[in-house]
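Dear support,

I submitted the protein below through the web form. The confirmation email said the job was done, but the results page showed an empty box. After a refresh the structure appeared. I'm attaching both so you can tell me whether what I see now is the final result or a partial one.
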Amino acid sequence: MLDFGLAKVGKTKAPSTPEAGRGETLDLTPMTEPGTVMGTVGYMSPEQVRGEETDHRSDIFSFGSILYEMLSGRRAFKGDSAVETMSAILKSEPPDLVESNRSLNPAFERIVRHCLEKRPGERFQSARDLAFQLEALSGTSSTSGSGVGYPAGVGRRRLRPLLVPLGILAILGAGFLAGRRSVVRKLPTFQQITFRRGSVSAARFGTDGETVVYSAAWEGSPVEILTTRPESPESRSLGLASAGVFAVSSSGEMAIALGCEFFWGGCHGTLSRVPLEGGSPREMLKDVHEADWTPDGQELAVVRDAEGRHRLELPIGHVLYETAGWISSARVSPRGDLVAFIDHPSTSDDGGSIAVVDRSGKVKTLSTGWSSAWGLAWPPAGREVWFTAAERGRVQALRAVTLGGEARVVLRAPARLILHDVSPTGRVLIAHESARTGLRCLPPGETKERDLSWFDGASATDLSKDGRQLLFCERGEGTRGTATAYLRHTDGSPATNLGDGRPLALSPDGSQAVTVKVGPPESLVLLPTGAGEPRALPAGPLKSYVDASFFPSGDRLVILASEPGHARRCYVQDLAGGLPRAMSPEGASVDFAGNPVSPDGKLLALRGADSRVIVMPTEGGEPRSIGGLEPGAVPLGWSPDGRGLFVWSREQLPARIVRVDLATGKSELWRELRPLEAAGIVGISTVNMTPDGKSYAYTYDHRNAELYLGEGLE
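What the results page shows now:
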């Protein structure tokens, strides 16, 4: 019966001093603002129906609606639909109460009518005034002008049973209307606990529930592990440079990533364990992306690279799930029987699904279709999984989903939120992150880089041979999360929208671009850069596309893709027709960036399953390894004479491009790429070069985050 109203909460005043600001709370909970229509329809006030600003007089109207229903046995405003009911609230008057209760004192009619005035200024102006009138009517004096006024005798006796409820109603009404705002559910509060410029890769509560352990790269410095507490603005370094935190066990032991390299904002490195109070790390496993302790602190769940796939293991060595895409935010449940994770089907974006897997490897998808998803944790009860994700674009909200698949929003804000951890008492570590990817290019004939960023989610995918046209993808808030192909002249001219799809490569003559049409299932489409119609290519068995490049002749494509249940490999496809044909061996996962095809079209430069650079014939034959390069190096392209190869170490910052002489194996540093603004740069994700190496373009990933401690979230 009391489900009609909406409490209004005043905004907290800004602190008058910096010291006061330390305790300032960030209120992200929506309040009843003008333009918001909320409430139970039958009891809404006219101003609520119109979405106007409301105050306590709106509650008095709603209380009058309930009082009318109690006295008449029917609603004051009722239509066959919600729209008709709201129309009646705005335009109609309810029938007289005496029509349904002829023994009722007309004074009741006046009180109810006064509550139900259409204009707020014509109603009772306070709960006290209304309570006074109701209390007066509940009196027993027949001579008082404000009393009931019924003659003594039978009528009086007939009214007496109504007087006690009216007295109670007067007390309840006054108490409800006057004290309603004092019983509003406590709003969540947020205390900022980091204050420097840069990115936060992970944050976890310590064993005491107060200490916060986090890894961050501040002001362009390498990532390191730090601790802080809510009562102090200072953070203390643990002396673990180039390391990121994965998890903290119930016994106070950390799982960390040594040699941390950023991967989609998180750390990728060598899994090691080290006591929180200090000591030397003990290395355990290479190429690990995620790790989390079981509740007893005896075992670790890990996500790692293995044979070109992402594997989720618990304990280490026991595979629960693997994918040709990637896995993030793997967290063990409070009971230790499940692992929740975010399953990303494509390596080209962070969209995906929320899933759980049990110890036997049975996977259940709880929530799917998220355009961007990063950050997950279990609340203490373990009945839900909390995560941060966006339906479109990259502005993530904090959400919850039950193990049965029922989803809800916990917290929404006009900003990108990243969930890091939930404590046993329900406190939350959540980051407010400003994230964007941008483009920088050195055009032909120029000596300074030019920023060619378009919207907020640009990613360079190909550069024309003369360095004058840049093909790139936009997939941020600017395109509402839809992958869109753009072509832009490197002189800074406005970009041209080629159409929907994730672009992969520009043809040698610049007349068309090959793009991935988002599925399922995915497919390749040739988009004209000028006049013409798009043309789809037959997919055959391929379901997931990673990259593609044109042969120098322009009549064939080399495609990096995977079939269901298989590691990615290289395929070739004739543009004149026919299905894609496998080039690289089955089970030997490969990778490339830029243009892997030699100028004569006879060789491919790839990164093999063992992270070594290999060169293999396009018509079949044994590959040969290129020695002397750093592990993880990826080929970018060939020199014009086919004798040299440009190679890039993807995870390094600054990005180092090396030219390798294939005859001698000698390598030399060709160029270093470093964005001018170092703070918040977590990596360079793509690099494209002209064959002569004089012009280039690259994508930088920029993230600035502030970490908050949240309380009161439900």
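Response: this is the final, complete result; the empty box was a page-load delay. Residues 78 and 85 are 5 Å apart (CA to CA).
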